[in-house]
UniProtKB/TrEMBL annotation:
It comes from the Bacteria. GO terms for molecular function: fatty acyl-CoA hydrolase activity. The keyword Hydrolase applies. Pfam families: 4HBT_2 (PF13279). This is Acyl-CoA thioester hydrolase. Keywords: Hydrolase. InterPro entries: 4-hydroxybenzoyl-CoA_TE, HotDog_dom_sf. The keyword NADP does not apply.
Length: 145
């Protein structure tokens, strides 16, 4: 598998005054897709809550290349671009592509796992997080940290 792919649909509320998709909607779609993927891999919100850890982001950046409009048919492609061997730190990219494969935007997030009880980075990385991220498709330019 080259990436996790999902078709997304825009709502009227996702538009800005210029009638194209507002900048913050991209981040919302990226966050939703990450959680859906983790759930699919068995790393559910309930598991994270029970085991006392969750993802924390250090950086989230979007590069906008082509505008998106309400009627566009868009697919979000998600994969890892960087990761430590123990999955304690990672980067995930989301590519927003039109049905003709035109790249419209790229979100990059850098993150880690946080112990929600101690409120600091989880150490060691929970085994289920390592397992989930090991299944994640990797970008062509993937870098091991």
């Amino acid at each position: 598998m080259a990436s996790f792919i999902k078709q997304i649909s825009f709502r009227w509320s996702d538009l800005d005054p210029n009638f194209h998709v507002r900048h913050s909607a991209y981040y919302d779609f990226g966050a939703q897709h990450r959680i859906e993927i983790l759930e699919e891999l068995g790393l559910t919100l309930k598991v994270m809550q029970t085991q006392g850890f969750g993802p924390v982001l250090f950086r989230e950046e979007c590069v906008f290349r082509k505008e998106l409009k309400l009627s566009d048919k868009i697919f979000i492609h998600t994969k890892t671009s960087k990761m430590k061997a123990d999955a304690s730190r990672w980067s995930i990219i989301h590519e927003f592509r039109k049905e003709d494969d035109t790249l419209c935007a790229v979100i990059t997030v850098d993150g880690a796992w946080m112990d929600t009880k101690l409120r600091k980075l989880a150490s060691p990385t929970p085994e289920i997080a390592i397992e989930a991220l090991s299944i994640f498709p990797k970008s062509d330019d993937f870098v091991g940290l």
